[in-house]
Amino acid sequence: MIEVTLAKSAGFCYGVKRAVTLTNEALQQYNELYSKGNVVNNKNVVNDLEEKGLKRFSTVSELASNSNVLIRAHGITNEELKEYEQLKCNIIDATCPNVKKIHDIVRKYSNSDYKVIIIGDKFHPEVVGIASYAGDNVEIITSENEVKKYNKVCIVEQTTFSKEYAQRIIDKIVLASNEQIIYNTICEATSIRQSDAKKLAETQDIVVVIGDKESANSNRLYEIAKEINKNTIFIENVNELNINKISNCSKIGITAGASTPDDVINEVINLIKREIF
Ligand code: SF4
């Protein structure tokens, strides 16, 4: 018998739902709405919002004063925020409250004798944003090899980083420093998705991860499942699904990143059901 199991956590998290709702509301309210970068990390969602009128900009010089500016779910830098304020922009802040909380923590320690350490991907916009609130008193660590010797440290994590990998880095920092304040800032939505992906990888013949290739949390789900179950595939949408890969599997596990819309997930499930059953 063939079974298709969809992870309960698959799809939009609270922060993405909130950002999409705020954007849709603002699009109804204002004639022009601008955002820098993707509001959330999913092309389908972004294309849909752009079709409804959301305009993208790359640098603040493209904005007129008093523009309506939407801040994406994973936040912006302190410098960008100041630039919008100087232009007297009307700011619609869709930054996820979980990310805001990290901004507040690093701001608090920015002028202290604790070195702020962010565990995360150095070039991810969320991490770049968090780092900007710590001023010069910050170091971003992505792997265990980068850990040095420290005196006092305040540690935070990128919300979508791998829980297990972050813990390994933290263990090493604890050994290499004299005093630590540790904030576990990997968000609950991420932890639940990672643990569900792990369970699927342990119990299913194949795991299909659906998400945008630029989405950090979707990539992480893929890495976690792939490490346990080599028969894991990562697709953005139904068009990328090679049905031959799953035709010999009787237990098919499906999960999706926190910014993958339900209709994209359902299209994949429907194709599998049509072709396999
Ligand atoms: S993954 Fe977590 S931090 Fe990111 S938007 Fe979703 S709830 Fe917020």
Q: Roughly what fraction of the amino acids lie in strands? A: 15-25%
Order of helices and strands: EHEHEEHEHEHEEHEHEHEEH
Question: How much helix is in the residues?
Answer: 40-55%
User: What kind of sheet is the major sheet?
Assistant: 4 strands, parallel
CATH homologous superfamily title of the largest domain: 4-hydroxy-3-methylbut-2-enyl diphosphate reductase, catalytic domain
How many helices does DSSP assign?
9
Bound molecules: iron/sulfur cluster
Indicate the low-confidence ranges by residue numbers.
none
Radius of gyration: 20 Å
The CATH topology of the largest domain comes to Cobalt-precorrin-4 Transmethylase, domain 1
Describe the structure.
It is a single chain. The chain has about 280 residues and is of the alpha/beta class. The chain has three domains: about 5-10 and about 190-275, Cobalt-precorrin-4 Transmethylase, domain 1 (3-Layer(aba) Sandwich), CATH 3.40.1010.20; about 15-95, Rossmann fold (3-Layer(aba) Sandwich), CATH 3.40.50; about 100-185, 4-hydroxy-3-methylbut-2-enyl diphosphate reductase, catalytic domain (Cobalt-precorrin-4 Transmethylase, domain 1). The protein is built from nine helices and twelve strands. The strands form three sheets. The protein has a four-stranded parallel sheet, sandwiched between helices. Strands 3-2-4-5 form a four-stranded parallel sheet. Strand 2, helix 2 (about 45-50) and strand 3 (about 55) form a beta-alpha-beta unit. Helix 4 (about 95-110) packs parallel to helix 5 (about 125-130) and helix 7 (about 190-205) runs parallel beside helix 8 (about 215-230). The longest helix has 16 residues, at about 15-30. The radius of gyration is 20 Å and the shape is flat. The model has no long low-confidence stretch (mean pLDDT about 95). The chain binds iron/sulfur cluster. Iron/sulfur cluster (SF4) binds next to helix 1, helix 4 and helix 7. Iron/sulfur cluster binds near residues 16, 159, 189 and 217.
